[in-house]
Amino acid sequence: MPLSPDQQSEIDEARAKPRETLRCVAPGLEAALYTAHPVLDHGFVRVIDYMGDDSAICQAARVSYGRGTKSVSNDEGLIRYLMRHWHSTPFEMCEIKLHVKLPIFVARQWIRHRTANVNEYSARYSILDREFYIPAPEHLAAQSDINRQGRGTTLEGETAARVLEILKADSARAYDNYLTMISDEGQQGLARELARMNLPANIYTQWYWKTDLHNLFHFLRLRADAHAQYEIRAYADVIGQIVAQWVPIAWRAFSDYRLGGAQLSAPELAVLRRMLKGESVSEEGSGLSAREWREFHALFD
């Protein structure tokens, strides 16, 4: 169950009491406020609160640039200019607070983005639910032969079934032992803060995660990339859909210049210029490493 009955009751109550406000609102996001968007097998993402919209980005930019922005004819043109030239400060004027339920191993990747405010569910105070992430068969894969931190071919047949059975059995056994250790029936139960060490990394945790739009875009640029681990990418994709409802103009600019764009190094740019002039450039004569050469060609495949 992605949401507990108490959480669903809280959402229903909040959505049943709309409030008048003088601050700017994003209609697309207002329609989805508090709603849980399912991710993976037991996870979700939902918006708790936000500040600002596309107009807030422009307002901040025009304060900082003064009369220099008079030549920008509309908000979309200004936002695309800011994105294209890496002017990040105006995007920091928008903030969003998310409630996320996610496996602990995904949370440990996520927390590497240290530019957010985070408050996580406390397993010292509360007992964690019996909910574990078990991959769908199509997401079980062998280690990649060419990427030390990536996946290769999908596991099939008996091999996949054996792995799934191990994951399920180990998760259940660890949780049963967790409950046994903290139980105070006929014994002095172990402290929750100690018992939690025996839980596997695929158990679900929850947190509130608040960040500004600039740093959220940085998170999405890395985690919505095709090379990111599937599990965190699933969350990034859902958050991207939320951002598109919140700041649609900024999202389009981000999609064009970051997600769908590419950045070239000086040597790569030099190779491209030579090619555009009609020169045949080989890997040996490019000045690029073998990996740089592969990645350069992958941009145009």
Automatic annotation (TrEMBL):
Q: Which residues form the active site?
A: R223
The alphabetical list of record keywords is: FAD, Flavoprotein, Methyltransferase, NADP, Nucleotide biosynthesis, Transferase
Biological processes annotated in GO? dTMP biosynthetic process; dTTP biosynthetic process; methylation
Q: In which pathway does it act?
A: Pyrimidine metabolism; dTTP biosynthesis
Q: Which residues bind dUMP?
A: Q109, W110, I111, R112, E120, Y121, S122, A123, R124, R196, R223
Superkingdom, according to UniProt?
A: Bacteria
Pfam families assigned to the protein according to its UniProt record, in alphabetical order: Thy1 (PF02511)
Q: Which cofactor does it need?
A: FAD
Question: Catalytic activity, per the record?
Answer: dUMP + (6R)-5,10-methylene-5,6,7,8-tetrahydrofolate + NADPH + H(+) = dTMP + (6S)-5,6,7,8-tetrahydrofolate + NADP(+)
According to its UniProt record, the EC number is 2.1.1.148
Per UniProt, FAD binds at T89, R112, H113, R114, E120, D212, L213, H214, H218
Q: Name one GO molecular function term.
A: NADPH binding
Gene3D superfamilies given for it? 3.30.1360.170
Q: Bound how, and how many: what does the cofactor note say?
A: Binds 4 FAD per tetramer. Each FAD binding site is formed by three monomers.
InterPro entries given in the database record? Thymidylate_synthase_ThyX, Thymidylate_synthase_ThyX_sf
According to its UniProt entry, the function of this protein is described as: Catalyzes the reductive methylation of 2'-deoxyuridine-5'-monophosphate (dUMP) to 2'-deoxythymidine-5'-monophosphate (dTMP) while utilizing 5,10-methylenetetrahydrofolate (mTHF) as the methyl donor, and NADPH and FADH(2) as the reductant.
What is the similarity comment for this entry?
A: Belongs to the thymidylate synthase ThyX family.
Matching PANTHER family, A to Z? FLAVIN-DEPENDENT THYMIDYLATE SYNTHASE
The annotated subunit structure for this chain is: Homotetramer.
Q: What's the name of the protein?
A: Flavin-dependent thymidylate synthase
| Protein's organism | Pontibaca methylaminivorans
